[in-house]
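Re: the request from the purification team.
They wanted to know what the chain is likely to look like in 3D before they choose a buffer screen. I agreed to run a prediction and write the result into the notebook, where they can find it.
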Amino acid sequence: MHTRISRKNLQWVLFIVGLLILAFFLYSSGLFENLDVFLEINIGLFFIAFLVSVVSIILKVFRWHYLSREYGQPLTLYEASVVSISGLFFANITPGKIGDLYKAYYMKKRYAMNFLDGASMIFYERFYELLILFAVAMLVFVLVDIDNSMILVLLLALVILMGLYILYSKFDLIFGLAKKFLIRLPYIESQEDLDIHISKIDKRAIFWVIVISFASIFLEFVRLWIVTLAFGFKVDFVLLSVFFCLSIIIGLVSQIPLGVGVMEGSLTFFLEKLDIPSTIALAIVIADRVISMYFALFIGFIFSKLSIDEMTGVES
């Protein structure tokens, strides 16, 4: 219980820190004194950007639908929507998106699926998303000069990627070595309790997971580009995409739920490098976050209630 309380407190502390950072950027940018910039937005383009955001989420649903078939638990698109979209809520309100494991828990409770198989599905989603973001972000070395802090962030992202890959690809070996110590724990009654294996998908399936993930992320690049266009600025699409990836990675490394404050501040900073005034840059970021992250959080909350009701129905 103490551990759970501590984690919850840490989650709230990080979130409050993020809000304070966001408040600082809102105040220092002068956006509060220039709220009329939102009245100048092209509504038609902004609506198109919103539709692009919706399609990006649909692709995430389709990815879970595809992975569920590969793991022998084929879901309908509706069922995949309940799992995937509810996961958007739990992942984004927790540090490091650890709440994403809710999807594995849901699959276990709702469909009696092995928890580790569900966790494995999540690994394929998150690992290749991060790999794509990292690969695009690395283009920054070719396109612009960056300072040491950005290099450090990318190095941390690389360490996380390598750690995840080694842990997953060598799980049987690592767990086999750990068994010698785990068997001594009082609540481990027999060797069978430690008979744990991770199921993996073949290279063909991995290829399609990468394709779907890239398509979803590419649409996020398109959405942000359209939002900047809606505010009257036509910027370099590739450089904007690179900056977007960097800001996401910075938000992830910060461990702050939603990357709130950190994501907005870093992306605003990068947009200023594209010759966009600070006030409008932050307005662009806020508008983009509303139709992407905060919209996903809203519908994720609705679907989370639905998923919990369905689990409760199964358990009863």
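For the purification team: The chain has one domain: 2-31+42-149+198-315.
Please add any questions underneath this entry.
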